[in-house]
Specification:
It is built from 23 helices and eight strands. The chain is of the alpha/beta class.
Length: about 475
């Protein structure tokens, strides 16, 4: 597949080599290869001299395995085996540990302990909707503030929507500023019996429902959590806003990763439009796992027609082959009855039936009697000893037929592959027609999964070469 004329090439190496590029965010829908792309970019940037840290949120731990690390956690670990002047570190987001670190850093020891031991906090930090995306933003802000690396590559969470990563700070801010939280904070601020009376009057219906569903202790845990976190809410919002501005800064580059499939490219187009609306810098689109063929000049239609000719040609051409055989096997002046007798012994050659360019002289070799006595008719019976009747000659026909069948099967597989290529090209062309301003790099599919640095390096090479038109 070649790049559409409307699509500008996405040049990866200049992007990674530019010292002004400090953050690269790989985003896209689930299952399109974001983690592999992020890791491959990290390897290439490090081997070209950058000091890189790759932050992944992928719980499958494929990144650790491919980089030769036993496990990844919330602390960056250096990757060994990088061939170049730079350094590569990798880490996997621990959502709960990141939340704990925020509490420990922004609360006094007694209050931090009360928060960490609170049951509602433990549920919130482990699985509240949007917490993973928000903590990814928090960790990105922490890494950027430490300034230990000159390039941070982020693999966004595998959410249902690629937009969750951008929406998380706003959603958390809305939660902290919401009526539910303010209502829970009111009794503590009012104090004493007046506060409890307010709580009982204002939340009687909700407490009754939640008490039945979640138990009577739930609201008490929530109120204790909100009271302890009150002084930290402003810090959450401030850091979220700062990280959001960091994503809009010129030193950040977004790479939208997609597969050449309709649903993936539809979401990629939606994300491209959202990035433009949020004024965030988009570097381009990485079109991952693109299929190719070494025989692209042979169309699907021609391959299918050739396969049908190989499979059905013997039936279609049987008459012509037998007519030629009768002419060579029966002497001049022989009777039509003799011709009918000889017909079954001179079948059409498989190579003649398939209309290939390979010459075949099997018809001549099966009729020595006719050649030896052209003046007389030599009856040929089923018991006659001829080369065609020998076991060696008889075994040749099935082998030729097998070759034809295998060839036809390969032609049909090629036709299916060309149909896949055509479908991918149409899908990609629709995207580039809608967004001609988006640079595109196509990454050919590998025959297997990536398990080590060599595999990541191969992906990086294909990625760097994927932005050039061919």
């Amino acid at each position: 597949m070649t790049l559409h004329s409307a699509a500008a090439p996405l040049e990866i190496d200049p992007l990674l080599d530019d010292p002004a590029t400090r953050i690269v965010v790989c985003c896209g829908s689930g299952g399109v290869g974001k983690t592999t792309t992020a890791a491959a970019l990290g390897v290439r940037a490090a081997e070209r001299g950058r000091k890189v840290v790759v932050l992944t949120i992928d719980p499958a731990r494929r990144l650790a395995q491919s980089m030769g690390i036993d496990s990844l956690d919330n602390t960056p670990r250096q990757v060994k085996g990088v061939e170049g002047p730079g350094e590569l570190h990798a880490m996997m987001l621990d959502m709960k540990r990141t939340f704990d670190e925020i509490v420990e850093a922004h609360a006094d020891p007694d209050r931090a302990r009360a928060i960490l031991e609170n049951p509602f906090y433990q549920s919130l930090s482990a699985g509240f909707a949007g917490t993973q995306e928000y903590m990814a933003m928090e960790k990105l802000g922490q890494l950027r503030a430490r300034d230990n690396w000159d390039l941070i590559i982020v693999d966004t969470p595998p959410s249902r929507s690629a937009l969750d990563f951008l929406d998380a700070p706003k959603r958390l801010g809305s939660f902290l500023d919401g009526k539910f939280i303010r209502l829970l904070m009111a009794p503590a601020k009012m104090g004493g019996r007046a506060g409890m009376k307010f709580l009982n009057v204002g939340m009687s219906m909700m407490t009754g429902t939640l008490g039945k569903l979640l138990g009577g202790q739930f609201l008490s845990d929530v109120q204790t959590f909100v009271t302890a976190m009150d002084t930290m809410f402003g810090g959450f919002r401030t850091r979220a806003d700062a990280t959001y501005r960091l994503l809009q800064a010129p030193g950040t580059a977004f790479l939208v990763v997609a597969a050449p499939e309709r649903d993936a490219l539809r979401e990629a187009a939606y994300f491209v439009e959202r990035l433009a609306a949020e004024e965030m810098p988009l570097a381009g689109l990485v079109l991952n796992r693109v299929h190719g063929s070494g025989a692209a000049r042979l169309s699907a239609e021609r391959a299918r027609a050739a396969a049908e000719n190989l499979e059905d040609g013997r039936i279609v051409d049987q008459g012509a082959g037998n007519a030629q055989s009768r002419g060579s096997a029966v002497a001049v002046g022989s009777s039509p009855e003799a011709s009918e007798t000889h017909e079954p012994l001179a079948p059409a050659s498989p190579h003649e039936s398939a209309k290939t360019d390979v010459s075949d002289t099997s018809d001549v070799s099966t009729m020595p009697a006719a050649s030896a006595a052209p003046e007389s008719v030599v009856p040929v019976t089923a018991s006659s000893t001829t080369p065609a009747a020998t076991p060696a000659a008889a075994s040749a026909t099935p082998s030729v037929t097998t070759v034809e069948q295998l060839t036809a099967g390969l032609l049909r597989l090629h036709a299916e592959r060309m149909q896949v290529l055509a479908r991918e090209e149409r899908t990609r062309d629709r995207f580039t027609a809608l967004h001609p301003e988006v640079a595109v790099a196509e990454v050919p599919a590998l025959p297997g999964d990536v398990h080590d640095l060599a595999g990541l390096r191969a992906i990086a090479d294909r990625l760097a070469a994927g932005g050039t038109s061919s």
